[in-house]
Amino acid sequence: MPRIYGEYLRVQRRVNSKIPTYNFLVFYTSAGLWNTCMGIFQVLLPLYALSLGYSILEISSLIALPVVAEIVTRLFGGALSDRFGERKVLQVCFSLMVLAALALSSATDYRLLLLAQTLAYFSRSIFWASIQSLASQLGELSLGKRLGRLSASNYGGSLIGQSFAGVAAAFFGYRKSFVLLTSLAVLGTFFSFLLPRLEPKPGHRSVWKITVGIGHLLRYRRAWLAISASYAAAIPLAVTVSAYPLYLAYLEYGEQWIGVAVSLRSLGPILIGLLIGSWITIARQKWIYAAGMAGLGVSLVGSGLTGNFALLGLCIFVLGLAGSVMDLLNQVQATEWSDADGRTVAMASMGLGWNFCPFLTPIIVGWIAEAQGFRFAFLATGALFVLAAAGTGLWYRWLGAEAYALKTNRGEVSEAKLKSRPGNDIIVEP
């Protein structure tokens, strides 16, 4: 026990270490820049593919297919991050975004569009777990506040990118928009080399040993509850980069208006991150889960019932709000159910919904929309999430998270968490 307790104190010292203010500014700025680039990319790619004459199903497949490879990259990237450090992995992430922007700039057919999308998805697959793990280990604020501020930076960048992308494409054309995207990606890469430095990761663990620990983590039912939360958190992204731009184009709204509407997805998460991030705790997870699922369902059903631009914008805003609540819940779950040295792997594994959702949802919704129309597709998808919200109590009892929450509130989990060993037992059943 003394050795384990010493390891625990070492991790705590790292978490509470003083970090210069400028490093925090660099951290949040770099996160915002990456999301600005991704926001621009997500709006330009489907609209550019549409301008090249591809069908709804082809564009939906273009968005979804790279996710298959992204799942492996996400888990392997998490293992690399826990072995070599989040900072180095994030530098690779920004470099991949530069390559994705260059590929999109030269894309003239489906294969090059697919290459650009794949590179962007590889960048995304290693960004989220690494940046969230880094945030969870910085400063002395509460966990919810730290993750909330990161969420505000991420979605603020996404809001800027998505708002500007449609306007830039409409007024300046795709080529100049691609040049802007590439320039911002290069700037982000520069900032990635200025990210805060943490204490080096333990050197005795191999990448293989850390990767094997993922299988151990996924044996726990509680981890799959977190994965379902991350799937729900990814719904706003999945539908706003596939179904919504095409739906709005079908309703004959211009590119600049499509960019503005899609960008509203990021407005709610900024407010959530800044105002109530500290309210997202493991003790409240059951009610947060139900509210988030219900919000997603209602906003999707509402989108299927209207073609009015203002009402669709409101639905997209609520959709982003609900998704942000689920995203913060997922991050808190992954942090509370893991130790610091296995944090990135835990976040990558429990965040697998961010990979499954962008793969499955665009294809399913695109297929339904092709067969039955967009309105029916939104109604059917929304109804599924309303049902998921209604069954929250059942999911929590079945997956064991309700009992864990009770033990956490009574202080019975702290000793078990001390027994968590990096690269082996990443999550411990109390």
Structure, briefly:
With 430 residues, the protein is mainly α.
Q: CATH superfamily assignment?
A: MFS general substrate transporter like domains
Helix content: over 70%
The CATH first-level class comes to Mainly Alpha
Q: Mean pLDDT, rounded to whole units? A: 80
Structural account:
79% of the residues lie in helices and 0% in strands. Mean pLDDT is 80; it is low at 1-9 and 403-430. It has helices at 2-15, 21-51, 56-64, 67-84, 86-105, 110-136, 143-172, 174-192, 207-217, 221-240, 243-250, 255-263, 267-275, 285-305, 309-336, 343-350, 353-372, 374-390, 392-398, 401-409, 414-418. The protein has one domain (18-197, 214-418): Up-down Bundle (Growth Hormone, Chain: A), CATH 1.20.1250. The two termini are 17 Å apart. The protein is globular and about 55 Å long. The longest helix has 31 residues, at 21-51. Helix 2 packs parallel to helix 5 (86-105), helix 2 (21-51) runs antiparallel to helix 6 and helix 7 packs antiparallel against helix 8 (174-192). The chain contains 21 helices and no strands. The protein has 430 residues and is mainly alpha-helical.
